[in-house]
Write a structure and sequence with these properties.
Elements lengths: L1 H16 L7 H5 L2 H7 L8 H23 L17 E4 L4 E4 L2 E4 L3 E4 L1 E2 L6 E10 L2 E9 L10 E7 L1
Antiparallel strand pairs: 1-6, 2-3, 3-4, 5-8, 6-7, 7-8
Length: 159
């Protein structure tokens, strides 16, 4: 999954460096079918993960244009190697925690170490690599671990 998301990101960076205009995140998302025809393996990746790639690229392009406007050194978005693209997010679903297993859509069930009970509604689930360890970071809304942090909080699960 991570490799395919990184590949789609890098494919778009290459297109932009070759002179294609950036028309925005929504216009780029509309090209997903073209990307799927070019690389049929993208059909095996959960659709919302691919949408998240476009939001990530959109944020990079917005930062680039902001720096150009402010007269700063622009820093064009760069290719992401395996070391630089170390996470992917399930933004609105496609994940479920059942006892001591995390079910990820199009990946399957993964055994987890749940560090604390998750209270409230999970909003996003990000799978993140740090070194040779993988973590699931959930963002939730509702009852929090530390009420001084407000109603939103983050929890971490070791995979």
């Amino acid at each position: 999954m991570q490799k395919k998301c990184r590949g789609l990101y890098n494919w778009w960076v290459m297109k932009l460096k070759k002179g294609e205009l950036w028309l925005g995140t929504l216009a780029a998302k509309k090209t997903l079918q073209e990307s799927r025809r070019h690389d049929p393996e993208l059909n095996h990746v959960y659709n919302k993960l691919l949408h998240e790639v476009f939001f990530r690229l959109g944020a990079a392009m917005d930062a680039f244009f902001r720096r150009v406007k402010n007269g700063e050194k622009p820093g064009y978005p760069r290719f992401k190697s395996g070391d630089r693209y170390d996470s992917f997010s399930y933004p609105q679903g496609g994940y479920e925690i059942i006892k001591k297993r995390l079910h990820l859509s199009k990946i399957g069930h993964i055994k987890i170490k749940l560090h604390r009970e998750i209270k409230g509604t999970i909003k996003t689930c990000t799978i993140k690599r740090e070194g040779d360890q993988w973590y699931a970071v959930v963002r939730r809304f509702g009852a929090c671990f530390d009420c001084s942090r407000g109603a939103e909080g983050r929890g971490q699960i070791t995979l």
